[in-house]
TrEMBL record:
Keyword Aminoacyl-tRNA synthetase found: yes
Annotated Gene Ontology cellular component terms: cytosol
GO biological-process terms attached to the record: glutamyl-tRNA aminoacylation
Stated name of the protein: Glutamate--tRNA ligase
Gene3D superfamilies (UniProt xref): 1.10.10.350, HUPs (3.40.50.620)
Organism: Candidatus Giovannonibacteria bacterium RIFCSPLOWO2_12_FULL_44_15
Length: 419
């Protein structure tokens, strides 16, 4: 049996797209499930548009995601190989040099297309048949040294012994051309699996206006990589049961093309946030502190950080959220005195309740018992606002736990002085 070898082949002409990351995951899961190999190939034959920084971005973001490759190739390192095959094709007549415009010296290399139908059996889409007549003699190289995408990809897929080409559906129209080249070169045709398109929430093709498209942007926002991996694996695939939180190991063992859908997959950010919260909830206090460190000011470190990490663990969808959510803990927020007043309560009663709470904190009394008696809203609302300065925040007792009695008393006294 042929060894399973799959590849992700990004062109470094921009930051690695989440669609590429999703294709990478499916390639990885399928290869690992079958004990095969996953290859990363940088397709930088278009030297004008390719940038080293985008190659670096792709590698860094894929490693962050947990997609490590077994072999790495870069097409610009393989020029001699392509030149050799271009020469061969020119010799055996499967390609020819073509003058582009009469009287102009511009020349390209075209594939000698005999036309006729090309059939392939797509693992996801089923039988595909295309009449290749209309494709004409398409261009496969700029010159004898410079192959274009189709030729370089076909040669590499053959030389790297790629068994399965798993890529986005937007490439399905490229497949007939690539099969024609394979046939002309006597290369085997790999199996193809074209993955459903990724759509925005309005069901149009995912684009800039739907928000971040680059994998590295999700890294920057502080999503846990395991959550991103889990989320991307569910874009167009699901396990046999209805589990939605699956580890990488579980995904490897559950993956099957049989459950890849044909229709577009919606990139639902609320679902990403939901999955991400599931991962963040399980982290230890230390892990939260470590992960939020890059998003918060140095001055926040130590002191209240440990307790704050515990309090906000269940309230953030990504590590960068911590800065906004926990800000009032570290940097007291100014607010209007009116915010302290619960519904129709009076200023005097509000003041009285806050004074009583100060006494209770100092003497170790039970604030909840007092609040039950005097009215929860009447007591707990102004208390919570005096501690947070916010309309919405965690409950007052939880905040006191993080701030400690001394700072809590200071904040309450400040509130009393405002009234
Ligand atoms: N370089 C192509 C791209 O980034 C790869 C297509 C393929 O997987 O064959 O879209």
């Amino acid at each position: 049996m042929q060894k399973i070898r799959t590849r992700l082949a990004p062109s470094p002409t921009g930051l690695l797209h989440v669609g590429n990351a999703r294709a990478g995951i499916f390639n990885y899961l399928f290869a690992k499930k079958s004990g095969g190999e996953f290859i990363l190939r940088i397709e930088d034959t278009d030297l004008e548009r390719s940038r080293k920084e985008y190659e670096d971005d792709a590698k860094e973001a894929l490693l962050w995601l947990g997609l490590s490759w077994d072999s790495f190739y870069r097409q610009s390192d393989r020029k001699e190989i392509y030149a050799e095959y271009i020469e061969k094709m020119l010799e055996n007549g499967s390609a020819y040099v073509s003058k582009e415009v009469e009287g102009n010296s511009k020349e390209v290399i075209r594939f000698k297309n005999k036309g006729g139908p090309v059939k392939f059996d797509d693992i996801i889409r089923g039988q595909v048949e295309v009449d290749t007549e209309d494709l004409g003699d398409f261009v496969i190289a700029k010159d004898t040294q410079t192959p274009l995408y189709h030729l370089a990809a076909v040669l590499d897929d053959a030389l790297m012994e790629i068994s399965h080409v798993i890529r986005g559906e937007d490439h399905i129209s490229n497949t007939p051309r690539q099969i024609l080249i394979q046939q002309a070169l006597g290369c085997p045709t790999p199996k193809y699996a074209h993955l459903p398109l990724i759509l925005g929430e309005d069901r149009s093709k995912l684009s800039k206006r739907h928000g971040a498209e680059a994998l590295s942007e999700y890294k920057k926002l502080g999503y846990p990589p395991e959550a991103m991996f889990n989320f991307l694996a569910l874009l167009g695939w699901h396990p046999e049961d209805d589990r939605e939180i699956l580890s990488k190991e579980e995904l490897v063992s559950e993956f099957s093309f049989a459950r890849v859908q044909k229709g577009g997959a919606i990139f639902d950010k609320r679902k990403l946030d939901w999955i991400s919260r599931g991962y963040i909830k399980k982290l230890s206090e230390g892990e939260i502190i470590e992960n939020v460190a890059q998003f918060v000011p140095k001055e926040w470190e130590g002191g209240k950080m440990g307790k704050a990490a515990k309090l906000f663990r269940d309230r953030i969808s990504k590590f960068s959220d911590f800065k906004e959510e926990a800000k009032f803990i570290f940097e007291p927020k100014d607010y209007e005195a009116g915010l302290l007043i619960w519904k129709n309560a009076s200023k005097e009663d509000t003041k009285k309740h806050l004074e009583k709470v100060c006494e209770l904190i100092s003497s170790g009394g039970d604030i909840m018992v007092y609040a039950q008696k005097e009215g929860r809203g009447e007591v707990l609302w102004p208390l919570r606002v005096s501690l947070s300065g916010l309309k919405n925040s965690p409950g007052p007792l939880e905040i006191i736990e993080v701030l400690g009695s001394e700072e809590s008393l200071n904040r309450i006294r400040h509130a009393i002085s405002k009234l």
